[in-house]
Structure formats: structure tokens, C-alpha cells
Specification:
heterodimer, A: mainly beta, AttH-like fold, 23 strands, about 5% helix, about 55% strand, globular, B: alpha+beta, eight-stranded antiparallel β-barrel, about 50% strand
Chain lengths: ~350, ~160
């Protein structure tokens, strides 16, 4: 008998049942001072090309809310590969954010049992059209992922910006048409993430990578962050967390407060992380060197801009000493999503 | 008097020409009061050995304040390698002396391929202590299960 049923049987007072919120549920609640983002990415495991689409909400403190659709196509294949990036802004009232799906201007995200992505844009004479569907990977690897050690951090006041990955491991198929050339996708790796909060985090590096199965090794995924948040108006030191899923096993390095067990180094294009946690010890290196990088301007509700530098083609090295079981390493030459949020732009780099 | 125990150590090893990599071994040692033990178990040192059987020797020499390991294994590419290591217990640094161990990786002809440090996690101490006293501990069962799994995978691979 559950504690709730036992309480009913005893005739005791019953506290309200905890409200279960879907990881996909929109958190805006119509208030000013809110940002929210749903983002989907798909990577070709065989070549350096990837798609990133975002549906975002910006509810400024002093003006009506808007919704934005972002399309970014990363292509580093030789000889013709070229990045394409476009943003479209529409009034929030014309957009739809529901558990069944999201529609923002030309972007449609189908959620629920099946995940689909559709959209088409034109930009400076170039054209991108998407018709994708995604299936969840089999087993535990596909269950929603939180990098926080306790669920209260997803709903409480701290930190002010929240991060969840409702779909950490997807298998993507369908078609992408770029400048008239149609690409048929087969077994691309993908994910769907969800962020929200009163504002964007002060500064962070975030990364995610899916490693397809190899020889007798199961598929794996790593996701983590190093960030600074504001407490009483002051920035904290770097705080990091990492989760590794390999087959049915999950290794967590997410204590957050044990800063003496965390070593993080961020440069303009690289992120290195060494963590000790309940799962053992892990070292992650992600690099955007010589990879296409885009800069997105993220507006905060108070009007100031944060600058998001992002590639979906990062090189990834992961080395893990699990608490139980043999040490292992994973490598991806161009499968990593790597994002830096910074307070200032880089001179000469176009801001989308 | 026969003695046996199960031990796990983890660390990092820098290969002369190929960066730093995680290293772990899980072994069972059997010996007697002379301090000479034979060992067998599993070692992982990616990318050289994703997971390999190991065998070798362990010598406890209290008067020389030394616990030395020589662990032989075969890399994924078929090379015979040996992990050579020694702990040096000291009354001035008992914890460090018993839990930290410099290691060298030797290739054919005793060429040194890499160096690193391994550590014994204090969280493993109860399991380690129990393995001295009883046979069939959880650590021992896990080791045997992993060895069986690896042997089965090797046989399937060889017949494929």
C-alpha cells in the first residue's frame, strides 16, 4: 500500500498529491520575466553535419512576449559544406506551446508519443526544409534526464534557470533539403532539450554527445554543464555536473556543492571537466576547434543580451573510471553539442 | 597458512605517445605467509585493452616496506604487456602509502610504454577486508562473473 493510500485508510489528514509535471510542459504561466526554450538536434554519425532547431519564448519585463523559431544547419563536409542560420520572431499569441506539440512561425515540433520536426525557411537566397521523425532509443537510455542531484532544483527558486532533457537519446530519420539537395536521414542521433527560467544563466558551458553502439559496446550518452549562477547578486564559482549513460547503466557526477572534486577549464573553443562523484571519476574534453560555430543573441527579460556560442559538431573525448566495473573511454570526432553562454560577443562574429 | 583477498584499484596512465587514459584492475590474490601471491583478474586500459584477463604475482615484503605487483595481460592488438607497480607503506604516511601506487606499463622487451598512478578507494575497504576473512564475498562473485562474461565474449568472438 502506498503512503498516500495508507494515510487514506487510517483516516488521517492527507496532504495534496504531488503535482507531476511533464518534462515537456511549458512553464511560462503567462508571466513577464520569463525565458524558455525547446531545442532539438540531430547529428549524422557518419559525417560532420547536424541540424539544430529551437522554439523559444521571451517574456520581457516591459513589453509583450514573443516566440522565436531558430534554424541552424551545420555542415563541415567537403567541399561544399556551409552553415545556415536563421531566426524568426512572432508574437507569443500566435504560437502554440502544448504537450502535443509546438508551433512557432515556420517551425513545428510534434511531441508526445511520436516526435516530429517540420519546417522550411529561406535566408539570403538559401533554403532549408525539414521533415523529420524521431524514435526513442530502447531501454533506460531514453528516459528523461536531469543533471540536478535532487528533483526540487527543477521546481524551486534556485537555480533561477532550469535545465532538463526530456528526450536524451533519439534515433532520427526523414529528410532535410538544403539548397535544393535532399538528404535522406538514416539512424542519425538526436535529442530534445528544455530550458526555462527568469533569465538566462550568467555564464556556462553545456555539452551533450551520443555515442552509437560499436562492436560489442552498447550505445552511450554524456551530458553535463559547468556554470556560474547568481546568488544574492554575486556569481558563484564554476559549478559542474555530468551524467553518463552506457547501455542500461547510469553514472552520475552531480554533487554540485563539492567544488574540491570538480575541475573545469573553459577556453574560447574548448571545455575540459574532471569530476569525482557517486558514479566514480570522469574526464570530459569537448572542442569546437576548427568546427563551424554560430553565435546566437539571447535576450533576457530585462533587455540585456547574453551570447550563446554553439556548435553541434564538437570533438568529444570521455574517460570514465566507474565505481564498479572496468574503466572505459568514448570518442566522437564530430558528434558533440557544445554551447558556451557568455556576457560579451566575439569581435567580428555575426550574432544571430 | 593460506591467504587470499580481492582488490580493486583505479587510476590514470599516461602513454608515452598517446595521452592519458583511465586504468583499473580487479584481482584476486592467493598466497601464504611468505608474502608471495599469485593473482588473476581483469584489467581495463582503453584504448590498449578495453577489458582483458590478467595474471601475475604480488609480493608483500614488510622489511623492505614494499608491496609489488607484476600483472601480465594481452592488449586488444595481441601485444603482451605488463603493469609493474609497487606500494611503499610508511608509518609517516600510512594512508598514502597503502592507497597510492605509481605504476609503469611495460611492453615487449620491458620497454616502458607509460607511467601513472593508481589509487585504492577507501570506500572499497570493507569489501577488501571482508575478502581476507571469507570466501565468496560479493567482490569475489562479481570478479568471477566478469571473468566468465569476458571469457564467453572471447569464445564467441573467436568462433565468429
Amino acid at each position: 500500500m502506498s503512503a498516500r493510500n495508507a494515510a487514506i485508510a487510517r483516516g488521517g489528514r492527507l496532504s495534496p498529491a504531488p503535482r507531476v509535471v511533464s518534462p515537456l510542459a511549458c512553464r511560462t504561466e503567462g508571466r513577464a520575466g520569463h525565458v524558455e526554450s525547446y531545442f532539438f538536434r540531430a547529428n549524422d554519425p557518419r559525417a560532420p553535419r547536424a541540424l539544430w532547431v529551437k522554439a523559444t519564448i521571451l517574456a520581457p519585463l516591459a513589453s509583450p512576449p514573443v516566440a522565436e523559431a531558430w534554424f541552424i544547419w551545420f555542415d563541415a563536409t567537403e567541399p561544399a559544406g556551409k552553415t545556415l542560420a536563421k531566426r524568426e520572431t512572432v508574437p507569443f499569441s500566435s504560437a502554440h506551446f502544448g504537450l502535443d506539440g509546438i508551433v512557432v512561425g515556420p517551425l513545428e515540433l510534434e511531441l508526445g508519443r511520436q516526435i516530429g520536426v517540420r519546417g522550411a525557411i529561406e535566408h539570403q537566397g538559401r533554403r532549408l526544409r525539414l521533415a523529420l521523425r524521431a524514435e526513442r532509443a530502447v531501454g533506460q537510455a531514453s528516459r528523461p534526464l536531469s543533471l540536478y542531484p535532487i528533483s526540487g532544483l527543477e521546481s524551486g527558486p534556485f537555480p533561477r534557470s532550469k535545465l532538463l532533457t526530456p528526450e536524451p537519446q533519439l534515433i532520427v530519420s526523414g529528410e532535410i533539403e538544403v539548397d535544393g539537395a535532399t538528404l535522406a536521414l538514416s539512424d542519425w542521433t538526436g535529442m530534445l532539450g528544455h530550458n526555462w527560467g527568469e533569465e538566462h544563466a550568467a555564464e556556462y558551458a553545456w555539452g551533450q554527445c551520443i555515442f552509437p553502439p560499436e562492436r560489442d559496446q552498447p550505445s552511450a550518452m554524456v551530458e553535463g554543464f559547468t556554470g556560474k549562477v547568481k546568488v544574492l547578486g554575486r556569481s558563484t564559482p564554476w559549478i559542474s555536473a555530468l551524467v553518463v549513460r552506457r547501455g542500461e547503466e547510469e553514472l552520475r557526477f552531480d554533487r554540485l556543492i563539492d567544488l574540491w572534486r570538480q575541475q573545469a577549464e573553459l577556453s574560447a573553443e574548448t571545455w575540459q571537466l574532471a569530476l569525482v562523484g557517486p558514479g566514480g571519476e570522469a574526464r570530459l574534453e569537448m572542442s569546437a576547434r576548427e568546427r563551424p560555430l554560430v553565435c546566437l543573441g539571447y535576450k533576457n527579460p530585462d533587455g540585456h543580451l547574453s551570447y550563446c556560442f554553439n556548435t553541434k559538431l564538437a570533438e568529444v573525448h570521455l574517460a570514465v573510471q566507474p565505481r564498479r566495473g572496468p574503466a572505459f573511454e568514448l570518442y566522437s570526432p564530430h558528434g558533440g553539442a557544445l554551447e558556451f553562454l557568455r556576457p560579451a560577443p566575439v569581435a567580428g562574429m555575426e550574432v544571430l | 597458512m593460506k591467504l587470499s583477498f580481492v582488490e580493486t584499484m583505479r587510476g590514470w596512465l599516461t602513454l608515452e605517445d598517446h595521452g592519458t587514459h583511465p586504468l583499473s584492475f580487479h584481482l584476486r590474490a592467493e598466497g601464504d605467509l611468505s608474502g608471495n601471491f599469485s593473482v588473476r583478474g581483469l584489467i581495463a586500459l582503453p584504448p590498449l585493452a578495453s577489458e582483458a584477463m590478467l595474471s601475475g604475482t604480488l609480493q608483500i615484503a614488510p622489511f623492505r616496506r614494499s608491496i609489488s605487483y607484476a600483472l601480465d595481460f594481452v592488449a586488444d592488438d595481441g601485444r603482451s604487456l605488463c603493469l609493474v607497480a609497487a606500494k611503499h607503506p610508511s608509518i609517516f604516511a600510512p594512508l598514502q602509502g597503502m592507497t597510492e601506487m605509481p605504476v609503469e606499463l611495460h611492453g615487449p622487451g620491458a620497454a616502458v610504454l607509460g607511467r601513472g598512478t593508481m589509487r585504492f578507494a577507501l570506500a572499497d575497504l570493507p569489501e577488501f577486508g571482508a575478502s581476507f576473512l571469507w570466501r565468496g564475498t560479493e567482490a569475489e562473485r562479481r570478479l568471477e562473473a566478469d571473468r566468465t562474461r569476458l571469457e564467453r565474449r572471447r569464445l564467441i568472438g573467436a568462433s565468429a
